[in-house]
Amino acid sequence: MRTAVVIGTGLIGTSAALALTERGTTVHLRDADHDAARTAASLGAGTVEPPEGMVDLAIIAVPPARVGQVLADAQREGLARHYTDVASVKAGPRQDVLELGCDTRSYIGSHPMAGAERNGPLAARADLFDGRTWVLTPMPDTDTETLNAALELVALCGAVPVVMDAAAHDRAVALVSHTPQLLASLVAARLEHAPDNAVRLAGPGIRDTTRIAASDPRLWVDILSANAGVVADILEEVAADLGGAVSGLRAMEAADAAKRGEGAAAVADVLRRGNVGRARIPGKHGAPPTRYEDVAVLIGDQPGELARLFAEAGRAGVNIEDVTIEHSTGQQAGLVKLAVAPGAVPTLTAALRERGWSLR
User: Fold this and answer.
1) Separation CA 232–CA 156 (nearest Å)
2) What is the DSSP string of 113-182?
3) What's the gap between Cα 301 and its chain centre?
4) Which of 214, 284, 299, 315 is in the most buried spot, having the most CB atoms within 10 Å?
């Protein structure tokens, strides 16, 4: 792939442009917001100058509702040999593409399963897609050369391709992405008018649960409007579970011991099913989930302390599988939890104590 055009220089479009540029592809940038395109160019994502001829691939990085029209316009212009979009919903754009009479032989839908709470070119990173799944949803007549161009794009961006039907993709992302976004926002909304002394008690649990609630509402309205029915179906199921949990909690306040037991059993059932569902989420490199153990280390809030801690683990020959940081309220310190394989705990603990670290 020698040349490409990225239409839409938000987070995803600019990140793809940065990745391609790093690997030697000449990338031309377009955006209805010319300032956004110029910002992306200033970051090294490509050039705002138009291509001199037909490029190898056009990447359409616009909201789902605009994909069909942008594709139609680009194909009329003869912009590229092959076309793909990176919208997070596929069935709606697919229908628009068909209704607008686009050339579907040179088009393939796609969706990189990556993102961030922030949007726009300034949030972009060349490594955003490294190791992430990138879904491809070919049309029935998508030609082999177009599929190969999309596969090359995925490879150049460091992602892992997965081919899916468009409708199956939308059902899947409704479950693992779109519904969690709304639920995170619903939980975070409880904090809007909460007393300050309550919010000060917030710890890593509420931070983890509400992290994606910091996302751009305008962007998510565009996404959800393109997959609204499927998300609503899942939320109805959640609402039924929520109603059962509420009834169970009310029963746990009853004077009657039998009712309290029934209520506790209903709440326990929700928690148990949550355990089962959580355990199904793939672990490292897509492998079955692995149980790790935490080594908790008290760390000062000074430059270089976290790097020094990681270096100590490396010298001990211990691989850190995950890390979480709990910040202490009102203190210049925090608690770092290093998730490691169970067999590595004694080795890491001994090494850190020997080097003077305070373990908890």
Assistant:
1) 36
2) S---SS-SGGG--TTTTTT-EEEEEE-TT--HHHHHHHHHHHHHTT-EEEE--HHHHHHHHIIIIIHHHH
3) 29
4) 299
Q: Are strands 80-85 and 55-60 parallel, antiparallel or unpaired?
A: parallel
Contact status, residue 6 vs residue 46, Cβ threshold 8 Å: yes
Amino acid (one-letter) located at 147:
L
Last residue of a domain, which of 279, 304, 334? Answer: 279
pLDDT, tens digit (0-9, with 9 covering 90-100), for 4-48: 999 999 999 999 999 999 999 999 999 999 999 999 999 999 999
- Contacts of 101 by beta carbon, 8 Å cutoff, 6+ apart: 72
The token pair at 21 is 């540029």
Q: Residue 355 sits in a domain of what CATH number?
A: 3.30.70.260
315 class by beta-carbon count within 10 Å (0-12 exposed, 13-18 middle, 19+ buried): exposed
Q: Which residues contact 348 (CB under 8 A, 6 or more apart)?
A: 295, 313, 316, 318, 338, 340
Q: Is residue 226 part of a domain?
A: yes
**pLDDT tens, position by position, 60-75:** 999 999 999 999 999 9
d(CA 249, CA 260): 9
Predicted TM-score (pTM) of the model is: 0.78
CB 88 within 8 A of CB 111: yes
